[in-house]
Amino acid sequence: MDPELIADCVHCGFCLPTCPTYVLWGEEMDSPRGRIHLMGQHVGGTPLTPEMAGHFDACLGCMACVTACPSGVRYDRLIEQTRAVVEREHVREPADRALREIVFQLFPYPRRLRALRLPLRLSAGARRRIAPRLERINPSLAAMAGLAPDVPDRVRLPRRVRAVGRRRATVGMLTGCVQGEFFPQVNAATARVLAMEGCDVVIPPSQGCCGALSLHAGREEQAVRLARRTIAAFERAGVDTVVVNAAGCGSTMKQYAEILGGEWAERARAIRTADLAEYLAALGPVAPRHPLRLSVAYHDACHLAHAQGIRSEPRTLLAAIPGLTVREVAEAAVCCGSAGTYNLLQPEAARELGDRKAERVLATGADLLVSANPGCTMQITAALRRRGGPELPVAHTAQVLDASLRGLAKVP
Ligand code: SF4
Ligand code: SF4
């Protein structure tokens, strides 16, 4: 924990009302200011207690406090450093340790996730039926069962998707771990949209997880290893820009130079990371948009809005589709509770935030929810499902654009 970053906090409290855990529980130590105070105590020599670790674990890492802070406190760096300290110094209960081991030996590895596809496809209904029973045994297992999406057929993407018409750019594309295995249709739509907008899209098969899940949980070693592998994969592919369609992955890749240091920081700086909406907005449209008669509620993923400052670009891209209207979700800046692996590791708080978000999404009366992060999509879908009633479809910005560019009658 960097004492200089801690000292930047002037304890003004402007961040408090934006912090989801402070809003839920009203506890100072579950606010950004309180957590920074605890970091200062630890740096000053106070040993890390289980209570302190609990307050750090309860932080979603949503970065709403970074947006709200008038003093520019780098809470993002602070909480990442703190989580790494917690992982090194805090002895977790055996059940918590085992759960974390399962999560981090599974999720960052696409091949291992792939092995889950068959059981998930066979038992979508059964999973949801057993979730309430699992709740009594272990809330995290129940959360896993409730969150798992209905997995579509695998989509094999080629190494290169050629630009349609005149080539305007060549970009790499991150396929990701959870996005690639559970939402392959989003990656396929992303590649098509980029190609229709005049990009050659290079998709190196040797890429894997970018390290975001590990970084956000303090597993530094694993995060560094995965980050280096991702950089090397795109270097070999010969691209200097990588387009990313998952908010958490994009924000992590933009931090690579800061996380890695030394030679790897230089190599990271040579490759620019751009979120899909950010990239398309800067590139400008050339492909004709066909009408889509629907209203969409746009969900701000925290790692897009707070961590990358990308709010207007996806809204502008969506609103430019003839016939489509964008509706705002109340409390848009408040996290849905997904937050990487938070909804598995802190299921009760995540559920509360998910239910709150679902209520506000439904209040928009929109036909479709648009979310640019696979974790948010799973979290809000599960919360909407818990309410019963007709399901509200959820799609990625790329899928809505793809449907419009291809002249489809609706978003598949
Ligand atoms: S990252 Fe989010 S949950 Fe954590 S302290 Fe900041 S606002 Fe609160
Ligand atoms: S983090 Fe920023 S907004 Fe929050 S108390 Fe410190 S200085 Fe104020």
TrEMBL record:
UniProt cofactor note: Binds 2 [4Fe-4S] clusters.
Keywords: 4Fe-4S, Electron transport, Iron, Iron-sulfur, Metal-binding, Repeat, Transport
Keyword Cytoplasm: no
Record-annotated membrane-spanning stretches: none
Domain 4Fe-4S ferredoxin-type: 1-29, 50-81
Reactions performed catalytically: glycolate + A = glyoxylate + AH2; (R)-lactate + A = pyruvate + AH2
UniProt cross-references to InterPro entries, sorted A to Z: 4Fe4S_Fe-S-bd, 4Fe4S_Fe_S_CS, Cys_rich_dom, Glc_ox_4Fe-4S, Helical_ferredxn
The keyword Phosphoprotein is annotated on this UniProt entry: no
EC top class named in words: oxidoreductase
E.C. number: 1.1.99.14
PANTHER family in the cross-refs: GLYCOLATE OXIDASE IRON-SULFUR SUBUNIT (PTHR32479)
Chain's role: Component of a complex that catalyzes the oxidation of glycolate to glyoxylate.
Name assigned to this protein: Glycolate oxidase iron-sulfur subunit
Organism of this sequence: Streptosporangium pseudovulgare
Highest classification ranks of the organism: Bacteria, Bacillati, Actinomycetota, Actinomycetes, Streptosporangiales
